[in-house]
């Protein structure tokens, strides 16, 4: 086993038992090291930005997925019956949360919302286990800018009779998403704000 593989294994074991404060700091550093870039970018919203956060660099990272899932699990209300999100950004997040929920003896199914209805079979927008009408579902997102992606997921879920009252993101870019959710009557929280990411990135750059 290489030293890299040994370190990865050690980190994974540590992440499953560490206190959440340490897990949060580890995840923040991982976002700064792998996902945050400065430059000239065009976002999915069409806006230009001097920085970009590629959340998939962390949500698809083995230790990143464990850290994200543990932190999000701690934020979910006790009556949460499923987590859901719009493909593709939310796919690894809801999957990781669902897996970790088993180890925490609190199994929570994952739902994936298609951007377009499936063109065959059930023609469904939503993939995953069927839930009872009125089931409480929390929408998860990696990076929130305007908030439109998660809001689309909310609309699909409520359209089939589920109850959605909250959106939780990993990173809030603080560019209107929170206000959009508030206007829609949704609770919103994030693990990190863009200020958290940028301040820690600057600290790591100066080392």
From TrEMBL:
Subunit structure as annotated in this protein's UniProt entry: Homodimer.
PANTHER family for this protein: OROTATE PHOSPHORIBOSYLTRANSFERASE (PTHR19278), URIDINE 5'-MONOPHOSPHATE SYNTHASE (PTHR19278:SF9)
HAMAP family hit by this protein: PyrE
UniProt-listed Pfam families: Pribosyltran
Key words, A-Z: Glycosyltransferase, Magnesium, Pyrimidine biosynthesis, Transferase
Gene: pyrE
Binding-site residues, orotate: 145, 173
Catalytic activity: orotidine 5'-phosphate + diphosphate = orotate + 5-phospho-alpha-D-ribose 1-diphosphate
Residues that coordinate or bind 5-phospho-alpha-D-ribose 1-diphosphate: 114-115, 118, 120, 141-149
Annotated metabolic or biological route of this protein: Pyrimidine metabolism; UMP biosynthesis via de novo pathway; UMP from orotate: step 1/2
Co-factor requirement: Mg(2+)
GO biological process: 'de novo' UMP biosynthetic process; pyrimidine nucleobase biosynthetic process
Protein name: Orotate phosphoribosyltransferase
Function: Catalyzes the transfer of a ribosyl phosphate group from 5-phosphoribose 1-diphosphate to orotate, leading to the formation of orotidine monophosphate (OMP).
Family: Belongs to the purine/pyrimidine phosphoribosyltransferase family. PyrE subfamily.
Domain Phosphoribosyltransferase, residue spans: 108-180
GO-annotated molecular function: magnesium ion binding; orotate phosphoribosyltransferase activity
InterPro entries attached to this UniProt entry: OPRT, Or_phspho_trans_dom, PRTase-like, PRTase_dom
EC numbers for this chain: 2.4.2.10
Organism domain of life: Bacteria
Family annotation (SUPFAM superfamilies): PRTase-like (SSF53271)
């Amino acid at each position: 086993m290489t030293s890299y593989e040994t370190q990865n294994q050690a980190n994974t074991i540590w992440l499953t038992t560490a206190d959440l404060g340490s897990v949060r700091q580890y995840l923040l550093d991982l976002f700064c090291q792998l996902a945050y870039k400065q430059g000239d970018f065009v976002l999915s919203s069409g806006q230009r930005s001097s920085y970009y956060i590629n959340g998939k660099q962390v949500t698809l990272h083995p230790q990143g997925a464990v850290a994200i899932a543990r932190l999000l699990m701690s934020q979910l209300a006790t009556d949460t019956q499923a987590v859901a999100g719009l493909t593709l950004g939310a796919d690894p997040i809801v999957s990781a949360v669902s897996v970790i929920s088993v180890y925490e003896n609190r199994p929570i199914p994952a739902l994936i919302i298609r951007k377009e209805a499936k063109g065959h079979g059930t023609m469904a927008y939503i993939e995953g286990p069927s839930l009872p009408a009125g089931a409480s579902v929390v929408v998860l997102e990696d990076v929130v800018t305007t908030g439109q992606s998660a809001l689309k997921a909310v609309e699909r879920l409520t359209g089939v009779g589920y109850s959605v009252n909250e959106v939780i993101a990993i990173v809030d870019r603080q560019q209107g998403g929170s206000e959009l959710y508030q206007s829609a009557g949704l609770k919103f929280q994030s693990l990190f704000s863009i200020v958290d990411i940028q301040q820690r990135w600057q600290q790591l750059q100066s080392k």
